Structure formats: structure tokens, C-alpha cells
């Protein structure tokens, strides 16, 4: 017979994402509503190994839902990638009476959650990443806020780009995924969108497009460049030399991770946090919470990590059509 869950732990791991605090708050309050205790693990897996563990009450998460970042802090942890580190993490959980763990993070964090589960700790993952690169889910905590932050910044760059009749290369985050770049490219009306999944590194096409657009009377040219391609500054120098058009690079960087989360990130993160507690109360383990076809759902972590996510070609085609 499965052991009854009495104490749930929660941690955030990897890069921070707006909405993580909403998820933490939902885990804490949903668990307490079911008569469970909750412990917060600070600084991710690194904090777990160092036993940086605190008790959390409903009041401890008051006034956190509107805050960006994570109140539990986050860190990378090379030691937790080792068998010894994983086994010690499970022992720390048992020492502190943690029967189930909610891990909020990306695919690297899920790999750690998978190992904890293999060592006997019931573990549920929540997709917390601005990159939208978790294949099993159509939504990840933080993407909506990050893409809106980037969109607003690009609107501002466009204003000055138009005033100076420039070409602007604007680099957005996303690691090796192009979702932020694609969404911003469509939302901001970019002339070119460079995605890691589709870019062929033929700069001559960009140069030809800039020149052709100038001949058609366009006063500016916006290129959205994904982080996975990068090198925006050197690209700007080459394009300016080839076209004679003043070209500037703007790298938006970590501003996209911060800020008060949008309504969607607050609500969806809250639903996912509550769902994770429900799964643990059902003695489920090695699961990832996702969102598909308008419903919250869950997947086996092994299955989720094996999935591959691709950029929809139709979206890419529409973005090209709209950029003329």
C-alpha cells in the first residue's frame, strides 16, 4: 500500500520565470487546505543538498502572486546531476519528512525530478520556463509575461528605428527555442524573424530583403533574432556594411525574465500548482503537469522528456506572408 502523503516540499530550479510565485502559492495553500504540511526548499536542488528548507504557511505566501521571480530563489546544481547527489537529495527529503516534492522548472529540472522519483520520493514537475520549449504542454509558466515584455520593448525600438530610418536587429531570449522570437515577430510586424529551428544562416537573403524593402518605400526594417542564433552585434555590422543602411543591435536579455506576471501566468500557474498537489494526494509520482486542448493534464516524466517540440510551419509561413 502506498504511503500517505503528509508533507509536501516545493522548489524552483533553473532559470526563473514570472508566475513561479503563483505556482508556489497554489501548492502551499492547496496542500494546507487538504490538511498537509508544506516545506519550501530554497535555491533549487542546490538548496536541497544543503538542507536550506523552511516551513511554509498560508501567510508566508501572502502578497506573492503579483511578484516576478521566485521567493524560494533558484540556482544551478552540477552535483545533482550525479548519482551520489541524487541519492543524497532523496535522503534529505526523508530526513525532513517530505513525502512528495513539487519541482517547478524546465526540462533540466524535470530530469532531476525524475531521479528523485527513482529514489523513492513522489515527485511532480511543473513547466516553469519562459522558453515554451517543453514538448508535452502548450503552455509553460512565464512565457506569456516574457513575450509581452519583449513585445512592448520591441514596439519602443521600432519607434526610434523609424525615426532614424534604421534597420534594427532585436535579440530575444528562448535558449535554443524560437517561440518568443516567432510570437514577437508576428505581434510586432517584423520584416524578418530568425529562428534556430528554421534559419539557414544565409545573410544575403536578409540583405536582399532590406534593399528590396527600401525600394518599396519602407522607412525601417525590424529583424527579430532568437537567442539560439545570437551574434546580433556582429550581424548588424555586416548588414550595415553590405546595405549602407544604418543598423543597430538591441539585446533585450534578462529583462524578459522579470516583472509582474500577466493574468494568464498567474491563473494557469495557480491551476498547475493545485493540480500537482492533487496528483501527490493520489500517490502519483514521476509526472509532469501540462496544458493541452484547453485542459490541464499530466504526463509521465520519461515520456515528456522524450518528446520533441517543433515550430509549426504554418506559423512560419503566415509570419512571412504578413511581413511584405
From TrEMBL:
It catalyses: beta-D-fructose 6-phosphate + ATP = beta-D-fructose 1,6-bisphosphate + ADP + H(+). Its EC number is 2.7.1.11. Residues 8-280 form the Phosphofructokinase domain. Keywords: Allosteric enzyme, ATP-binding, Cytoplasm, Glycolysis, Kinase, Magnesium, Metal-binding, Nucleotide-binding, Transferase. Substrate binds at residues 129-131, 166, 173-175, 227, 248, 254-257. Its cofactor is Mg(2+). The active site is at 131 (proton acceptor). ATP binds at residues 15, 76-77, 106-109. Pathway: Carbohydrate degradation; glycolysis; D-glyceraldehyde 3-phosphate and glycerone phosphate from D-glucose: step 3/4. Mg(2+) binds at residue 107. PROSITE patterns: PHOSPHOFRUCTOKINASE. GO terms for cellular component: 6-phosphofructokinase complex. Transmembrane segments: none annotated. It is found in: Cytoplasm. Homotetramer. Belongs to the phosphofructokinase type A (PFKA) family. ATP-dependent PFK group I subfamily. Prokaryotic clade 'B1' sub-subfamily. This is ATP-dependent 6-phosphofructokinase. It comes from Candidatus Limivivens intestinipullorum.
